Amino acid sequence: MNAAGANPRAAPSADINAIVSGRHGNPFVVLGMQGGGDQPLVVNVFAPEAGEVTVLDRKGNTPVETLERIHPDGFFSAILPGRKERFAYRLAMTAGDHRWEIDDPYSFGPILGELDEYLLGEGRHAELYKRLGAHPAEVGGVQGVVFCVWAPNARRVSVVGDFNGWDGRRHPMRKRLGVGVWELFVPGIGTGHRYKYEILGVHGELLPLKTDPLSFASEVPPATASIACGLPKYEWGDDGWMSQRAARHAKSEPVSIYEVHLGSWRRGAGGETLDYDALAELLVSYVKEMGFTHVELLPISEHPFSGSWGYQPIGLFAPTSRFGSPKEFAHFVDTLHQAGIGVIIDWVPAHFPSDAHGLVRFDGTALYEHEDPRLGYHQDWNTLIYNFGRVEVSNFLQASALFWLDQYHIDALRVDAVASMLYLDYSRKAGEWIPNRHGGNENLDAIAFLRDTNQRIADLHPGTLTIAEESTAWPGVSRPVGDGGLGFNYKWNMGWMHDTLAYISLDPVHRKHHHHQMTFGLVYAFSENFVLPISHDEVVHGKGSLLGKMPGDRWQKFANLRTYLSFMWTHPGKKLLFMGCEFGQEREWNHDQSLDWHLLDDPMHAGVKSLVRDLNMLYRDLPALHELDCDPAGFDWLGADDAENSVYSFVRRGRNGSPVIVLCNMTPMPRPGYRVGAPSAGKWAVRFNSDAAEYGGSGAGSTEQVETEAVTWHGRPQSLELDLPPLAAVVLAPAE
Length: 736
What we know:
Blueprint: H1 13-20, E1 32-36, E2 39-46, E3 52-57, E4 62-66, E5 68-71, E6 75-79, E7 89-95, E8 98-102, H2 114-122, E9 133-139, E10 142-150, E11 156-161, E12 174-176, E13 181-187, E14 194-200, E15 226-227, H3 239-248, E16 256-260, H4 262-265, H5 276-290, E17 294-297, E18 301-302, E19 315-319, H6 326-338, E20 342-347, E21 351-352, H7 373-376, E22 377-378, E23 383-385, H8 391-407, E24 412-415, H9 418-422, H10 444-460, E25 465-468, E26 490-492, H11 494-504, H12 516-519, E27 530-534, H13 554-570, E28 574-578, H14 603-621, E29 635-642, E30 647-654, E31 657-665, E32 671-678, E33 683-689, E34 705-707, E35 718-724, E36 728-734
Parallel strand pairs: 16-17, 16-28, 17-20, 20-24, 24-25, 25-26, 26-27, 27-28
Antiparallel strand pairs: 1-2, 2-6, 3-4, 3-7, 5-6, 7-8, 9-10, 10-13, 11-14, 12-13, 14-15, 18-19, 21-23, 22-23, 29-30, 30-31, 31-36, 32-35, 33-34, 33-36
Helix pairs in contact: 5-6, 8-10, 13-14
């Protein structure tokens, strides 16, 4: 056995030592077949598990030459006698009595094409996920997996996994110098292998093993390895839904969203989480019964800590493995679509967790984040902020958005924490942030990223929606980019939520002093296209349940809840309700256990569920309640100032007139003979009464038809008189 470098035919000893020690940054100049033509044809192989290595001509699979071990740790080399031109070959290896054959990873050429390099360099590769990540593929007639990862400042990157003993010396990758992407085709492996990247940082330091930023599947947490599986291969059956989606997403259509955390919506008999298949069957049945148009999922991107509810994701291209495989998630979406239910996912491009196996200092530098914590660190969440000004990072995030729409037929992205993206001084004191180039607090890079992403989504996936969780007065969030807006389709109306919850939490005796809290939302209701959100954020962190916010005795609590939900469903704006609120969950939401479905044995809880179901049906059936949700022509106050009685009355209209009258009595006092102006003369039918006995109410109030009189009221020449039930909302429509 010769010492390293003793064989003059082999690579220089420095290169051999670097390969053997796992420190060579350019393995393709050493390993595989070298030379040819005027130079000797040499094959170099690093195979520490082998006792003997022989080169085979793939044509006929015939032996050519047995290599010489020239380093005791397993570096083999030999000149191929009588050969001058390179040829396709395999390697036969033996270890004791065991013999096996492989294709040499270092016998394959570059993977990325010139167009890929150009688009990656420009940060405009819309299908980044089709090139980076781990993709089962056939190269040169050989089956294997192509690995590609961006790590421009790394000294060396190796793919490690259960196929090579997690040994970073075995599969070092080729660096594409122009774009900083490392690539390698590993033959002979396929779907299902666990892998990570072993990286030597910019100073040659060995970093913690990193998961693939573009992995499409991961191990079930707390395990963290990526799983080679490629893009999901699924036979979709939702053509009917997809062909109608754009029409269903018009602003004139009803949108009623059921917000769901999959891990705690419903669990098995033993408290175990259900998988995507079981959830699809149960959720479809329930959502159809309840009349919601869409399901919104708290983030399903892979995340290490369940207690983050998915809002600290690491796998922006992988549905969480907690509930099954990528194919099973596709089936989940498909099942909802075939039932006529849209699917919205929460998408988190604002920040990422600092777990060592994730994106943090991915190649030993602040690659995805900012180096300066005044730009790159979220104080509130102990997370890192993406560097939106780096084209490769914005490309990565934008590709994630497009990925879910393209590969999983997702209908809308609700973008989390937009306010934290827009402002450089978000939740920071003076001196803790860096102004932009104009001296302002706007994050110009994040603004450009959001506008560009929304525009590309609109161009590439027409009919899909983006919805901003944005809690400030930033102008034009839901206005088109061409009109100077951010380009979202909708914005969560956080102000409406805060004001109305503050009001409804008051004892009714005090409400007359806070009457404006229910009317103020109409001052700005049409400045954006709004979604009215009663979300998970309102039932966690000590805030209690929605029912628990209601004042009074048990009956009043339920009556207040029914009235509040009725006000929400008749108010301009699309609707969003977090799971459990639709039947009056009593305790605060806990992500580690199921909702309390047993409460539906109680008629009061069952009554709230029936009320929400009927509100959804009413919202769908009456064009006046949805067609002009985003248009001031769809709303008129009748009585906005009856603070003494704490009664609100207003008209909703559709595009062709078809008005309805809504009255909300916010006190436990019945209001007999209450007069309200009417938009037209004639008979008006009571279409809905939240105090109905079937909802758990008292059954009071006018129940059938009311005819107008020529009595001027609320500035209308016609008015009607009816009995208002206590703590209740009533909806009237022209009698047929």
